[in-house]
Inverse folding.
């Protein structure tokens, strides 16, 4: 099992949050 660094987990999460916020703003 390979342990992922915090950055690899935080980046996708931040990107997903940004995408959701952009979608909510566009609506």
């Amino acid at each position: 099992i390979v342990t992922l660094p915090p950055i690899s987990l935080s980046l996708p999460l931040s990107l997903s949050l940004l995408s959701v916020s952009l979608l909510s703003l566009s609506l």
User: Anything to note?
Assistant: The radius of gyration is 12 Å. The mean pLDDT is 83.
